[in-house]
Amino acid sequence: MEISYQLTEDDYRQGYKAFRQRTTYSLWRTRMAFASFFLILAVALLISIFGPDKSFPNLALLWVLVALSTWCLWYAPHRVARKMITGSPSASLPYTVNVSEDGLHFRTSASDSRLMWSLITGWAEADRVFALFPSPISFLPIPKRAMSRVSCELFYSRRSQLENSFRLPPARR
Which residues of 153-167 are buried (b: 16+ CB within 10 A; e: fewer)? Predict the structure, then answer.
């Protein structure tokens, strides 16, 4: 099966979203970060409105924490995705991926690489991409828009075979 696509900023953002959900631990860590954010925001608002001492030094640290949490949870994935596209000339080149029994063969006008199935440590799925993990800290986004329904089903069947044969963790959908 051959898949041709050109990665966009949204593909990297979706891949990062899948990366955040790759394990149960990372999924719960993300959920707890969002819960903490809303708790800190509520406390900051309540203290700012109803608190006995509304001076700037008393509230500054709390509002800095709210701003930092906002940046980490919402803006950072957009910034990382933008840096991936603009910072690496090869990131936005058209890709052709050949999926075979041996693994994945990635081709662009600048590179030619192979990734054996046994080297994939995990995978996850977001709304618009499949994210393959060649290591615990990196991912390769493959956009679903480049695949037909049949290609997606073949990809699912290939991955389920690999989950059984290489004992990969099951995909998160």
Answer: eebeeebeebeeeee
* pTM value > 0.90: no
What residues have CB less than 8 Å from 39, skipping those under 6 apart? none
- Judged by DSSP in three states, 154 sits in helix
CA 122, distance to chain mean position in Å, is: 13
Tokens coding 168:
């990969």
Three-state secondary structure call for residue 7: coil
What b/e sequence results for 67-78 when a residue is b if at least 16 CB atoms lie within 10 Å of its CB, and e otherwise? eebeeeeeeebe
Under 8 Å between Cβ of 6 and 93: yes
pLDDT digits (tens, 9 = 90+) for 24-79: 887 888 889 889 989 988 888 888 888 787 777 778 888 888 888 888 888 888 88
Per the CB < 8 A criterion, the answer to whether 146 and 8 are in contact is no
Which residues have a Cβ under 8 Å from the Cβ of 76 and sit 6 or more positions away? none
Cα distances from 126 to residues 15, 92, 104, in angstroms, run: 7, 20, 20
